[in-house]
């Protein structure tokens, strides 16, 4: 990889999960959401004056809401079939792309520099 270029995607490692966990509170504050599941699945890096790390994170809805979903789906089935289709993927396959910056000091001072919500597993991590 050349200076400034983004690397190929790699499967997330325990170190990448640790980085994602460190910026999780920053993301939750910006999105005003709490993520029950926050699992890094893949990442890309970019060498700049420091390092940008692009991480694809698998998230889900809170468990209590997931338990209510089948009841809501059954209710909608009887009253309006067209409302079921958009709801079927709620809490399943929800991904977020996060951009994390670590400065040139090498002190593991990770900062959330951006995020993209409503992603799918198949969407490629790209520069943003």
TrEMBL record:
PROSITE patterns: CYSTATIN (PS00287). The keyword Cytoplasm applies. CDD domains: CY (cd00042). GO terms for cellular component: cytoplasm. It comes from the Eukaryota. It is found in: Cytoplasm. It holds the Pfam family Cystatin. GO terms for molecular function: cysteine-type endopeptidase inhibitor activity. Keywords: Cytoplasm, Protease inhibitor, Thiol protease inhibitor. Residues 1-128 form the Cystatin domain. Belongs to the cystatin family. PANTHER family: CYSTATIN A FAMILY MEMBER 3-RELATED, CYSTATIN FAMILY MEMBER. This is an intracellular thiol proteinase inhibitor. This is Stefin A1. It comes from Mus musculus. The gene is Stfa1.
């Amino acid at each position: 990889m050349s200076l400034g270029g983004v690397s190929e995607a790699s499967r997330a490692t325990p170190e990448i999960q640790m980085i994602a966990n460190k910026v999780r509170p920053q993301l939750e504050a910006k999105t005003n959401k709490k993520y029950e599941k926050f699992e890094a699945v893949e990442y890309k890096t970019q060498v700049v004056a420091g390092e940008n790390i692009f991480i694809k994170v698998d998230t889900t809805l809170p468990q209590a809401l997931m338990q209510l979903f089948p009841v809501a789906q059954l209710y909608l089935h009887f009253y309006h079939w067209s409302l079921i289709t958009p709801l079927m993927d709620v809490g399943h396959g929800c991904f977020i792309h996060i951009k994390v910056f670590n400065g040139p000091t090498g002190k593991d001072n990770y900062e959330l520099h951006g995020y993209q919500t409503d992603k799918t597993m198949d969407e490629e991590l790209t520069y943003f």
